[in-house]
Amino acid sequence: xxxxxxxxxxxxxxxxxxxWRRDVVELAALFTAVAVADGVANLIGHGPDGPxxxxxxxxxxxxxxxxxxxxARRHGHAPPAEDTGARSAAAGRRQTGPSRALLPxxxxxxxxxxxxxxxxxxxxxxxxxxxxLCAALAGRGVDILSLQTHPLARGTVDEFLLRAPGRxxxxxxxxxxxxxxxxxxWIERADAHDLVDAPTRALALAARTALDTAELPLALxxxxxxxxxxxxxxxxxxxxxxxxxxxxxxxxEDTVLRLRxxxxxxxxxxxxxxxxxxxEFARARALVELDTRxxxxxxxxxxxxxxxxxxxxxxxxxxxxxxxxxxxMHERCSARTLGLRYHGPVADADRYLNHLLSPxxxxxxxxxxxxGRIIGLGHLLWDGDETEVALLVEDEWQxxxxxxxxxxxxxxxxxxxxxxxxxxxxxxxxxxxVSAMRGxxxxxxxxxxxxxxxxxxxxxxATVPGGPVPGRPAHGSHREQYDGPGLRD
Length: 489
Description:
The protein is an alpha+beta fold and 489 residues long.
């Protein structure tokens, strides 16, 4: 058995390790030291000044020992401890490496306030251009949290998520980028939602889209930032086709994306302040392709609503499969009720239903009786940057709070989707809709043009992390969530 193996095994048992070669060396060193000491003693002792030299040597040794003791106590130089490979809990928390720098907490300094920024700039596609830009940002104390690159035919678009000191403003950041060779720089404030990395965000948006067809416009908006998204039907009311000029692979036109919708229409995405890159176009097209492959989807889920007189109704999401039941409700509604709802000839009401029930253009809630008869519909419609709400309740069931209940749920959906406001287009004579909007407890704006009343409710979406709108009481505890995570622009 080798000495190394024997030493390792003995050390694991906790016993000291001895080697005969070390003992021989120590004995030889001891005999040598005795011989040297004897020679020095004989040399000094037999000399004329031997006793005096011994006394001076002893005093010098005592003085040196006393000075060393005083110096060690004054400057706190403790003898080095044996390194056993373990650290105390306190040392482990304070020490992160052999050359750890002193943290602000060690210096008892307050943390410097910082701000998050999203910045996009175009640099030359050559080695070292990105390094120059990063060095320019670092020179201003800016920390790069994430980086995405979008290759172009000429140059590369770099998108940064930055944490900058609070004293650094947008002009200084754009100036640093320009000095480092960046051009067409765009910058805006970011928030904690932007800290999610791009692959995780894309997967989350894909999951939302897979669960609900109505999530596609919202997912595109979150994927591409603040933009305007419009869905045009494949067969407009006036005839013709909306998609005849859009190929199956879609069209990228600087600040406009046009994609073929699964149902044959066109999805248009506009972002005037920042051109789209081929990478963003490919991501949007992949999301639409996923929606096309999965087909129409409306999440299941319902809630029991008890009216003051004791009647129990079911509130649920509605979709194209409810077209026949919605048409039968139209037949039971009076001409006045349909006229107040659709602001036109009663015959046009049936033509709008197929569009309203499509999850491509928004979300619809239906209130139905225990027998399955639909007696009320509430629509939340995506209209570019704005959101419209609309209600229709069968005559026999009006003035029982059904419309207000549907409207409250629709407004909650809009707030959770990050919408800044919702508006309702009605008539001044429609006291039921006006009363329902006032019952929201939100700031309202009124505009009247030629007998048409537009009521806009402003939402504070920044303070609604998936909960009810502030200022309005929450719904009952049996209410289910009808949509996915909220969108934050």
